[in-house]
Every structure is written in structure tokens, then in C-alpha cells.
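User: Sequence in, structure out. Go.
Assistant: Echoing your sequence, followed by the C-alpha cells.
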Amino acid sequence: MSIDMSQFHQVFFEESFEGLDVMETGLMELDLGEADVEEINTIFRAAHSIKGGAGTFGFDDIASFTHVMETLLDEMRSGSRDVTREAVDLLLTSVDCLREMLSAVDAGDAIDEERKNSIQAKLEVMLANGSGTQPEKQGSNSGGTGNDHPTAGVWKIRFAPHPHLFRTGNDPVRMFRELEHLGELNTTVDTSKLPPFDELDPEESCFEWELELRGECSEDDIIEVFEWVDEDCDLSISRIEDKSEQNTDPENDPSISKGSTGVTEEKPEETQKIQQKLPATKKKASKKTSNENSSIRVGIDKIDALINMVGELVITQSMLSQISEKFMLEDIERLRDGIDQLERNTRELQENVMQIRMLPISFSFNRFPRLVRDLASKLGKNIELKMSGEQTELDKTVMEKIGDPLVHLVRNSLDHGIEMPEVRKAAGKPETGVLSLNAYHESGSIVIEISDDGAGLNTEKILQKAREKGLVGEEEELPDEKIHELIFAPGFSTADQVSDVSGRGVGMDVVMKNIRDLGGVVEIKSEKGKGSTFTIRLPLTLAILDGQLIRVGRHIYIIPLVSIIESIQIEEENCNSIAGKAELYKLREEYIPVVRLHKLFNVEPDSKKLSNGILVVAESEGQKVGVFVDDLLAQQQVVIKSLETNYQKVDGISGATILGDGTVAMILDLPGLVDLSKKDSGRSSHKEVLMAEEAVA
């Protein structure tokens, strides 16, 4: 029977990438010198799983490459090779190459053969050059069977797959082909359990096999072939004598059964030993059958909470159904109680569902030990990485999009922030610089801090470069906070030399754009000679937000509640205009720019007179702005619908939602509104907004 193995590919790739992460983390934690057996075993098992899965699915290039890595790790594990810096560096490079190969195969692209062959050759050279330590001349440590090293002989194998074997994606023919690589294989099939044709299930395995393998191989070699099905079959392996190579008289040799032809009687205790050597905790790619492009691992406590909440919802629904069947006027109070209970259950269910998408930020932080190690070595700096708050949770979507900005900020701190060892020493600092990553929750947001104890931002140099580029006037003076923000300008860089690490000015503006797209902000605190801290504030999720509904004419919009500072009735004497265009409102000795939504979106308001409306004071990227509206409506949680997915990107709008009455409301993007207001080009946006409403509805 032919099985479509491609249905298992995605699970193999996901588990392989997880295995590579395990290998990378383990290699980073290895101490130089004599290997820690447990740590090496963890790395070895991950490599072995990838090799086995690749071989099963026919990815021979990946299997052969991983086999060479596995051999080097095995020498470390056995104690015949010390852990050296060179070996760890090469293995880390090999992990990178293996990740690239897996990504290419997953995407259906060709593997970079030149890179793969180059690194594999380096691994083979390292293996050929010896270990630097002498292997112990001991007997086998395999539990006393004495057959763990390849020796010429004949092996008898009984292989009885369980009926469900085919459904796991495993095929006995593939295993027999692997055995043929070990020597001469003879097979005998037992069809005694084959049912009548009309009762035959093509997805069930009904055969058993008696195999005889002749060649130079060990028990471990044979076990390795079957380890992917160790829980899906009955297996026995025994070594037998080959009469053609022996002069033993069967009549006088008690080890040979009467009537046999050179085959020893199987010893149950020996077979049991062999079966015990099969890995019981092996991860099998064949066990999972998901074809999802991406997956998320959820704790059982979150699933239990969700199930309990669904149970509560069912009870509430049953109660409301009973009331509706024989509804009478005196049931009004019970109906109200039931609706209140339904509202509570729905809110709790929503919170529990959102928790399923929440992942610890360690998934993003885990990439940085390797990044810091490699980059510090490249720059010739001594840098210690400290991480805290790794278990702080945020939405999976937010985490996926924050990865690149974090990388930019970390590279910036390593390159521009932390000084060279001799410079630090001359300044009275430790030669080893410290880079810290921290995450925590605050006021419904997640805060991520990237700080270093380096030189801090060079305010004078930033201001000079900004003036050279025309970003700041020659006589214009700015406070330090505003000067620091200039590093986020497109194309801005203070690097004296362009390198592959930094200097092209295409990093920090990307950071700002990506974080703004997530509805977040970046703050900078820096002190010359002491270091810098970049603080990122992000919403916990991109799917739901607490919003304030506002009305302009007959249109309803939503402002994120987290951005609103206060709402005030406008007093006309506090209104000011500049050059007949820009409008400012004086609020407690502070002048706030006024944004008129009816002008930006070309809608008809109740009144264009400021004193007849309401000013919603909100914060946008550290600056206050007043949004002029006709009325404030309710506050409520809204589910965000993407405009880009349903229609297209619209300036000043970050998304849309569907209200309880079925109407569509646009969610305002405050930074975008400010930009629109400055350009004074909002009149062309009304048609786009109306079309967006139709697309979402």
C-alpha cells in the first residue's frame, strides 16, 4: 500500500526546527574541556531525531549532513574528544546550515549545495584530525551484550508491526532498504493473519516478517533502523552462528537446537535486553498528523479553563432557553439575570480564548544569546547578556512582529553602545560590558527594555549630523529627548564607517515603523558615559482593544482607550490659530494641536464651531493631540478587523470593527491622523473610508 508521506512533512519540519533550537541552546551552554555527558546527550538526541526523520522522508542531503554532526557529537559523548571552542563554533555553524537546508526543503527551494558541502568538509576534516584525547580502551558499555561494535555475523530479526502501523506514516519497505545498507538481507513474510479479501482493511498491517541479516553491523545499527516504530511493533533481535564459517558439529554443540540449520535457539532474556535498548521516549514525527502551517503549544491548564467556561456557557444558555419557552411578565428579572450571566460568561470565555494565543516572550529572547555571542566575537568586545522577565506573556502575533525591531536594537547597543575593552578600562569600567533584556506587564501593555552600560548616545554628534542632513535648523535648539528621537529618522546614522553590522541608517527607522504598526511607542533614556535604555510599550494583543466610541456627524469612530488622557468641553477663549491654518488649544499652560476629523475625512459634523463640540485629548508618540468630535458615546471592547486584509491600507485608520447593531466603525490611528493633519490632504480620504466600511461589512 502506498502512503502519501507529504502529509507528515510539516510536523517533521516543525519538530526539526525545535530540535535545532535545543541543539543551539545546548551548544551555547557547553563548558570547554571534558564534556558534560547529559548536555551532550541532549544535543545528540536532537540531532539523531532530525537525521532519523530526514531519512524516513527521503531527505537524504539533510540526513547525511546531520550524520557527520552526530559523529562528532558522539565522540564528545564517549569522552574520546574534548569540547573545544573550535568544535563548538563549527557545530553552531552547522546548525545554521541545517536550518537553512530545512527551510529550503520546506519552501520547495533548492539546497545551497556549495555551503552545505563546504561545512560538511570542515566537519570531516575535524573528525579526521583526531580528538586530542585518547579513547578509553574499555569494553562495550552497552549493557553487557558485547555486540555494540560492528562485527561480521548473522542476525535473526522478527518484526511484527501492530495493525495501525501504516496510519503512522511508517512503511516496512523503507526499513528493509535501510537494513540492506548494513549487509545481505533475506526476508520471509508470514501471511497467516491475512483476513479474507472482503474483510481486508487496506490501512491495517496484517503481515509479520522473519529477517536474516548477514554483514558487519552491531545491534545498535539494527535497533536504529527500527527506533521510529518501537511502540508500534513487536521486535526481537538475536545473533546466530553462521555454519559456513564454523566447523562446529551440530550434534555435539549444545548451543544449536536439534533440527536447526545453523541457527541458535533464541534466548528470551537476550531478546529482552535488546528490546529494552530501544528508546522509549523517542519523539516520532509520524505520531502527529497535523498539516497546519504553524502551530502553538498550549498548557493543559488553559484548555481546562476553556472547557470549564464552555460548560458555564451551556448552563446559561439552557436557563435562557427555559425562560423563553414559557415567558411571562414576571420572568423579566430572571431574564435580566440570565443576560447578565451570559455577558459575564462571554467576557470570561473571550479572555480564556485570548490566553491561548499568549506565549512567553522567551520565544523571542532565546535568539539573543547566540546573536550576542557571535557579534561580540566579530566586534572584538567582551559582552555579558542578562535576561529577565522571559515568562512574560504576549500575543503570538505581536511576538512574531516584534522580533526584527528587537534584533535591530540589540545590534545597535552592541555596535554603537558598548565600548571596546581598552576604552572601557581607560574609563574606569569593567572590560566586559553588560547588555540587559527585560520584559514586564504594565497598565494592560507589555514593556520591553533593552539597556546597556555603554557610552550612551552622543547628543552633540547626533545634532551635528541632523543639521548636516537638514533635519534641524542651524540655530535651532532641541532638548536631549528630542535629539535622541532623531536616530529614528530614515537614513540617519552617526557611524563613521559602513559595515555589515551597522552604519547604513536602515535600522532604527524600521524599528520605529514596525512598532508604530503594532500600536506601540519607543522611549529613549541615555546618559553619556553610563549607557542607554530603549523602552518599547506594546499592546498585549492585536485582536481586541478597549475603545472609546465617538461621533462626528452620523459617523462613529473608535479611539483606543489606552491613548486617551481626558475629554473636555471646549472653551472658545482657549482656542488659538497659527497663520490661519494650524489650531492650538491651551490646556493648563500647554498648547495642544487640534485635529478636526470632519475635515480629514470630509464628513458633515453637527457644528464646525469648536465651542459646540468636545475635545478628546490623547497621546501620540509622546505628544498630546486634541481630537475635535461632536459627541462621546460608550466605551467597549472591540474585535479588530484588518483593513489591509479586507480592503487596503487607509491613512489615519488602523482597523475596523463591527458594532452590536451591525454597523461598521473605523478605529483611528492617532499618529496617522497627526501626519494627515500636517499634510492637510484629508479630503481625499472620505471615499476610501466609505469603501473600507463596505469591505469590512
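User: And one key feature?
Assistant: The radius of gyration is 34 Å.
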